[in-house]
Design brief:
ditrans,polycis-polyprenyl diphosphate synthase [(2E,6E)-farnesyl diphosphate specific] activity, alpha/beta, 257 residues, globular, UPP_synth-like, magnesium, Isoprenyl transferase, six-stranded parallel β-sheet
Length: 257
């Protein structure tokens, strides 16, 4: 049994090396969004606690970012906590928030990533808000991958926040509603999104076999490619990542054309 597992692991590594060797870095997506799904189901299948599943998922993040760095990805958006997740039972939510806060602090301490929060900070606990602010400040000058941590994030909420920000900005500039109605366009709304001044995601990866976006970056993913992987997030391997890149490179992006 042990020998068979070792042999399987060796074959997977050799296959991953082969896929990576044929990968054209010029065709690698510059911005990857990740819906990291399946922590709880992974834990259940492993006979572990839900908290253990979330910890295993958190441990996968640094490894995943390392793969992104190796393949010249420039921006990664990680959906760590949705607005809907905040309604989970406190016995699950409390440990989950602690784990996510640890992730934020670990990313900042690593020194390789520039951390940026996307989401509504006001709905998060004070400790989480403080961790996010400190992480952004500590990594502001880092030249590595820009890592958007989507915490307390919902796609529809982001659009609502963008419209609210646009209206407040117009009010502060003394612009009337009639004038704003004449000025507003897609670019103006985009300048008020959480990810303003960033490229939109080229590729969105969702693990666990679920084939829906669940409100992830609704505005920014209008022309994104999607890759749905059957593997639960804690079990996501480098070969799964490389397959996603290979699949993306084989597609012809039409941008609505």
């Amino acid at each position: 049994m042990i020998l068979r597992d070792k042999l399987r692991s060796l074959l997977v590594r050799l296959y991953a090396r082969r896929v990576e060797g044929h990968l054209d870095h010029a065709q690698v997506p510059k911005h990857i969004g990740v819906i990291m799904d399946g922590n709880r189901r992974w834990a259940k299948a492993a006979g572990s606690s839900t908290a253990d599943g979330h910890r295993a998922g958190a441990d996968k993040i640094e490894e995943f970012l390392g793969w992104c760095a190796e393949t010249d990805v420039e921006v990664v958006t990680l959906w760590l906590l949705s607005t809907d997740n905040l309604s989970r039972p406190q016995e699950e939510l409390g440990p989950l928030l602690d784990i996510i806060e640890d992730v934020v602090r670990s990313l900042a301490a690593d020194g390789r990533w520039r951390v940026h929060h996307v989401g509504t900070p006001d709905i998060l606990p004070a400790g989480m808000q403080r961790a996010l602010k400190e992480a952004e400040e500590a990594t502001a000058g880092v030249q590595g991958i820009l890592v958007n941590v989507a915490i307390g994030y919902g796609g529809r909420q982001e659009i609502a926040d963008a419209v609210r920000s646009m209206l407040l900005d117009a009010h502060e500039r003394g612009v009337s509603l009639e004038e704003l109605a004449e000025q507003v366009d897609i670019d103006m709304i985009g300048r008020h999104m959480y990810t303003r001044d960033q490229p939109d995601p080229d590729l969105v990866i969702r693990t666990s076999g679920e084939q829906r976006l669940s409100g992830f970056m609704l505005w920014q993913t209008a022309h994104s490619e999607y890759y749905f992987c059957e593997v639960f997030w804690p079990a996501f391997r480098k070969v799964d990542f490389l397959r996603a890149l290979r699949d993306y490179a084989a597609r012809h992006r039409r941008y609505g054309g």
